[in-house]
## 1
Amino acid sequence: MRSLLLLLLLALSACSSTAENKPSPPPIVAAGTPVELRVMVDSGGTTFKDKAGADYQVGPVALVLARFTKIEAGFAEAGGHHVQLELPSDDAAKFAKFTEENVGKRIAFVVKNMVVTAPTLQSAITGGSIEISGGFTAADAGTIADTIRRG
């Protein structure tokens, strides 16, 4: 009986040390509706509106983002209000390729045929961490984050 108890304790301690050393992946948040990324065009595209009614000419869907590890509005002293998105590693690789090919272009984030935001892509984003900024108020940043989160 004593050897059985010792064997059980050894087995349990081996399991717990393996689990302690392995970091758990960040939780995945599914967007309420997938976010379409579309490059803005001068003509010949599809016209979508934003919540204020402004028109945007956009090209075809270039990338769809439906999973995030982080979606939040925030404030940085140097950058003002912004929206922070983080992607799981498989989507981060696709997003990196997309951004490398489209530096300097305006990218429309479209949810349910509405432009949520359309920032100019300043540089390639290879780490999967996206910061969208552009003179947002706290309410604007919160609305963008909520729209991406809920659809």
Note: Residues 2-21 form the longest helix (20 residues).
## 2
Amino acid sequence: MKMTLAAIGLLAGAACPALGVTLVACPAGTAAKGCTYKGDGAIQDAIDRAADGDTIFVRAGVYTPRAYRDLPYKEIIVRAFVAVDGKRLTIQGEKGAVLDGSAGLPTTAIGLKNADVTISGLAITGFRFDIEEDDIYEGHGIFAVDSRARISGVTISRYQKMGLTGRGDTILDVRDLQIRDGHVATWLYEGAYLRLDGAIFRNNDSSAVAAFNDSVAHLAHIAVDRSADDGLYTADDAAIFVSDSLIVGSKPIALNATGKSRIVGRNLALHGNATDTSETGVTLQGVIAGDPRVDAEYRPLADSPIAGKGIGPAPAR
């Protein structure tokens, strides 16, 4: 596996970008004061002006893609509404800040290339493609290439391709995430690494996490509900380590490891899946079967068999 202890240490070591100035992006027509830029292109304008260590503060309101920035990578082009290329920044959304791709140009919401970025507090919805199968990558939520990203408090919904993507030597450190009502929720490729603590994946028409090549994911306190093409999926030499989580209502297989890949699970609740595991490649310890008896946010009810066992999405910190 490509991920080493040294690489995992980089996550902690890069967790606090240097402090810089704050640039404020505001939606068109806002009455808010102190806006550095206004309009649908305000976030990108702020990023273009920002220096390493700066913060982009995104005021509440809706931002629609009226322009895009292309990020070439190998055989593809990530067509991004918001693009960060080669910078170290923080993008902090105020409650109610929404990137909405349902109108305007077909794009990917946020593209990262050779970047080191902290993203928090954004709602990303409705991003769509122009042509389904070509080398122009639109319709994604956050697409990171050869980058480090710390992501928290983000919701991605109604996207047509992938919600969260890591390619190349990307490191994703994620918590308090929701991805719902889309296609592949999380896609890891090449040597990407994901550490995820606290997430809800609901009603996606493909996997909650799909890992390929030498990619690795460490998942804890997640809920996977009604994935229509495997809950967790690995291929090639990829690996997923998942703990303290529940996977319900998924098909055809809740935990599916193919090729030489593997999935290792501990302290899991599995219920209502068409099939719980593939015949090979999956190792489990401490599985609780039967109805987990949880509320709409996957918190155990008083009579739940998982009450007190630490299973399910962790509360926001």
Note: The first strand starts at residue 22 and ends at 26.
## 3
Amino acid sequence: MMKKIKEIIPGLVVSIGVGVLSIFIGQFVPKLGAATIAIFLGMIVGNLFLNQEIFQKGYKFSETDLLSYSIVLLGGTLSVSTLMELGIGGITFIVCQMTVTIVGALFIGKKLGFGENFRFMMASGNAVCGSSAIAATAPVIDADDKEKGIAITIVNVTGIFLMFLLPLIAKVLYSHETMQTSALIGGTLQSVGQVVASGAMVNESVKDLSTIFKIVRVILLVVVVLVFGHLKNKNNEEIIEEEAIDVKKGKVKIPWYVIGFFVTCALFSLGIISNDVSMLCKTISNKLEIFALAAIGLKVNVKDLIKQGKAVSLYGLFVGLLQIVSAVILIMIFL
């Protein structure tokens, strides 16, 4: 345990330092905001000075764990009525968007000549929750580590570009109207961190609602993994039965922060979390979020973005374009 803590500390300190500096700078440029500054400042610092291996585990902890705690605390600031804002239309939009992404990613990958395992991981990563979905899908379809690593890289690269692009598209199409902008960001972006970062570039309301859209997608991870297992092993009844048992046993499970989010949301809705405590939750959540976004920026390796192979880059590009177009069309239909 002490060894693990020592490995985390260097990157954690840098992430917090960049986050604190971003909060300070944000006071002078409030239109840009601390969250946006944290991402860009992290990218600059990470690529120019502090991209050594010693910092990477701390960056990883800050990006994942701090963001998870932030999301749990966010639940303590939202009531059930806020969650209900998604409505039937919002839920239907998410299901349709995920379906289009999965089918499209499988089709595009096949046309580009990629193997079945890689296509399944690209489909789950883009449709659900990036690296986490790929990690959950890989063992079910017997994918090797190399395929998993490439899929995680290209999905994250696609998400990074979309993270900056979607707020601009939402500005042109929706004038940053909260529901439609949140659906575009929360229904499209690959990772939870990218959703929070992109939503924060617009405003606080969009960040919160787009996170809710994203959480609904994450909840559906279990369904996606089980379906992919069936598609991969459709001629082997024993394997299919084993996958179903794994899901029932919780080996493929919803991330803990999603459960925590709904627990704190329920406590706030019931009045167990008072308004004063809710305000404190909001403050701490925002700070943790900025530290996590700084870590996301620090982890972006520009060299990795440049050196991706042509075919893999095209795969990410086409899937990203498909997600944007389908999201815009489905928002017109359902929202």
Note: DSSP finds 17 helices and no strands in the chain.
## 4
Amino acid sequence: METGWAVRPLRPWVPKDVGVDHWEPLLVSGDRVAAGFTDTRGGIGRTFFLNLDSGEIVSITSPAPTGRKVIAGPGDFLIGSQGYGAFTTGRYGRDGGETARWASHGAMLVNEQGTICGPELENSLPSTSRFRRLAQNNTLVDGASLTGYYTSCPAMDREGTTVFRRDGKLLAVDADLASHELFAMGDDRNVMGRTLLLYDGRVSTARWAP
């Protein structure tokens, strides 16, 4: 070999085909916009924070593997990163600067009190994921362990209970992070889709098999 079998980093590739992110490509909160674009070849992307009124770019995240995103507050966003060893979630404020980072990535939700929690989506089997709360000072609060991988988009009620489908089960995790199995689906298909909370404690889930 040219390197004499010595390990050397590869040269960075030049993106040839850039498209919008697969997950949450466009989010609007207050007077800020988070627009995500990804190199479709390698899954490396960046999020552009823009002024909604002028269209001016406020800031841009560093290139990283793309992940899930969510609005965290007026002008605030959570930007996840998963892949190539990355498994993190960063919080970005109205000025586009990073204000926090957690060693977790998942389908996170934010309630009216600003509490952030949700099921992790680590890409490994057997699963090492948990239901996590992203706490202050970049710390994590552990909830229940989660089996399987494919997960529906979660929904949260006013009492802070999160409901989602995972590994053939409909699960509810309450505000104290206690997990409850509501229903077993009777199948183990890889199902992802939306979760809707209806009246009288009813739940509706949409099926989408990748």
Note: The mean pLDDT is 90.
